[in-house]
C-alpha cells in the first residue's frame, strides 16, 4: 500500500486530486483504493465494461488528473482491449496528466509507450516502503460513485471519509446484528473497493 501511495505521489498527485480507476476483474483491482484514501485523493471506480464515451463522461465530471487501468481484461474467454477504450476516452478529457497501466498481456501493446503512460502498475519496488498518511477531516471527500446513466447523464454522489466509516458501522450494527457484542470500526479494506 505504501509503495503504491508513493508511486502516485511521484506522479505529482496531491490531496484533493481525483483519480479514475478503470480496472478489470483482477485480484489487485482494489489495490489502488487504500493508498488513494491514505493521502486524500478522491477516486472513482468505473466498471471496466463501460464504453469510451461512458468512461469519458465520468472522467470529465470528476476532472480526474490520473487514470489507473490495465492493457487488457479477460471476460468469458475474450480479450477486452481496455487501454484502447481509455485512449479513446482521453481524446476528450483534457484534465488527465497520467495513465497508470497494469500490464497483463505479453508481449506488451505498442501503444502503451507514450509520455503520459506509466507501465507495469503502481508499485515497482523502487518506491519507499513508508508513506505518511495525510490528516483528513471527516468531511473530506473519499470517492465519487456514479449512477449507471441509463436514464440520462450519470450523476456523481460524493462520499466522505466520516460517512463511509459511519456507514460501515451502521451496516454491522443494524444489518448483521451481532447480539450482545460491541461493534468497533477498524480502518482498512472492506471487500473489493467500497461496499457499505
Let me know the number of strands. 9
Q: Return the string of H and E elements.
A: HEHEHEEEHEEEEH
Distance between the termini: 21 Å
**Largest sheet features:** 5 strands, parallel
What is the mean predicted local confidence, pLDDT? Answer: 80
Residues in β-strands, percent: 15-25%
In spatial order, strands of the major sheet run 2-1-3-6-7
The stretches of 5 or more residues where confidence is low (pLDDT under 50) are 185-196
Summarize the structure.
The chain has helices at residues 2-10, 33-38, 52-62, 82-90, 161-176; strands at 18-22, 42-45, 66-70, 73-75, 78-80, 98-102, 117-119, 141-146, 156-160. The chain is an alpha/beta fold and 196 residues long. α3 crosses α4 (82-90).
Write structural notes for this entry.
It is a single chain. With 196 residues, the protein is of the alpha/beta class. Helix content is 26%, strand content 20%. It has five helices and nine strands. The strands form three sheets. A five-stranded parallel beta sheet has the order 2-1-3-6-7. Strands 4-5 form a two-stranded antiparallel ribbon. Strand 1 (18-22), helix 2 (33-38) and strand 2 (42-45) form a beta-alpha-beta unit. The radius of gyration is 17 Å and the shape is globular.
Amino acid at each position: 500500500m505504501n509503495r503504491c501511495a508513493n508511486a502516485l505521489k511521484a506522479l505529482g498527485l496531491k490531496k484533493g486530486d481525483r483519480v479514475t480507476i478503470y480496472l478489470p476483474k483482477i485480484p489487485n483491482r482494489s489495490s489502488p483504493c487504500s493508498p488513494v484514501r491514505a493521502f486524500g485523493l478522491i477516486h472513482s471506480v468505473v466498471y471496466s465494461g463501460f464504453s469510451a464515451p461512458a468512461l469519458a463522461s465520468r472522467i470529465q465530471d470528476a476532472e480526474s488528473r490520473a487514470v489507473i487501468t490495465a492493457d487488457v481484461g479477460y471476460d468469458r474467454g475474450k480479450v477486452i482491449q481496455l487501454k484502447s477504450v481509455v485512449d479513446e476516452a482521453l481524446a476528450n478529457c483534457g484534465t488527465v496528466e497520467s495513465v497508470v497501466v497494469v500490464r497483463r498481456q505479453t508481449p506488451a501493446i505498442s501503444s502503451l509507450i507514450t509520455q503520459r503512460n506509466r507501465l507495469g502498475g503502481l508499485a515497482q519496488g523502487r518506491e519507499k516502503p513508508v508513506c505518511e498518511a495525510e490528516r483528513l477531516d471527516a468531511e473530506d471527500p473519499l470517492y465519487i460513485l456514479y449512477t449507471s446513466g441509463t436514464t440520462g447523464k450519470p450523476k456523481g454522489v460524493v462520499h466522505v471519509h466520516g460517512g463511509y466509516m459511519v456507514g460501515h458501522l451502521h451496516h454491522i450494527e443494524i444489518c448483521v446484528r451481532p447480539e450482545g457484542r460491541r461493534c468497533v470500526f477498524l480502518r482498512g479494506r472492506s471487500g473489493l473497493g467500497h461496499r457499505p
